[in-house]
Task: inverse folding
């Protein structure tokens, strides 16, 4: 009689272990399926994930004054760089939208262009940075570049960070503010 009970207990214990093992395997299979179906799901620790930048573009009502002193729309380029020396050394005329990539050479990763109207507030969706992204530069194409502070650069890390960056376009200069989440 004890033998039958021991056998039953052993079988029950084996079934419980087997079923609990299956549920873990099933959960793992479901997770893998989700990652395969949605490549935006991060895999691994946050410190190994690409950094993200959420830009907030803010234009003052009196920005980019023309010869009459009236505020006018402005073109802004946000430039992603592996190194900043070429952007720092470049003149305004060397950084046109057509020559930007050529002027910055191998330091250039990518860029985005925006047009801002006076008094405009424009929050952007997060952008994933490249692993080798070390700097974020902003170029504002002012009507009077000689009397404007038209470029700024901030340091970023391409992996493991989440940044909120305010690009504040004023009458004759731009301000960059970076905060980490």
Result:
């Amino acid at each position: 009689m004890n033998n039958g009970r021991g056998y039953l207990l052993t079988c029950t214990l084996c079934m419980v272990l087997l079923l609990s093992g299956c549920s873990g395997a099933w959960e793992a299979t479901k997770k893998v399926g989700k990652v395969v179906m949605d490549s935006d799901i991060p895999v691994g620790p946050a410190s190994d994930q690409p950094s993200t930048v959420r830009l907030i573009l803010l234009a003052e009502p009196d920005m980019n004054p023309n010869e009459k002193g009236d505020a006018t729309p402005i073109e802004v380029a946000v430039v992603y760089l592996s190194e900043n020396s070429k952007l720092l050394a470049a003149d305004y005329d060397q950084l046109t939208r057509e020559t930007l990539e050529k002027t910055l050479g191998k330091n250039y990763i990518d860029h985005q262009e925006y047009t801002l109207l006076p008094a405009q507030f424009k929050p952007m969706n997060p952008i994933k940075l490249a692993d080798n992204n070390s700097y974020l530069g902003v170029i504002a194409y002012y009507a009077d570049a000689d009397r404007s502070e038209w470029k700024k650069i901030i340091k970023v890390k391409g992996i493991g960070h989440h940044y909120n960056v305010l690009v504040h376009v004023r009458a004759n200069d731009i301000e960059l503010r970076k905060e980490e989440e």
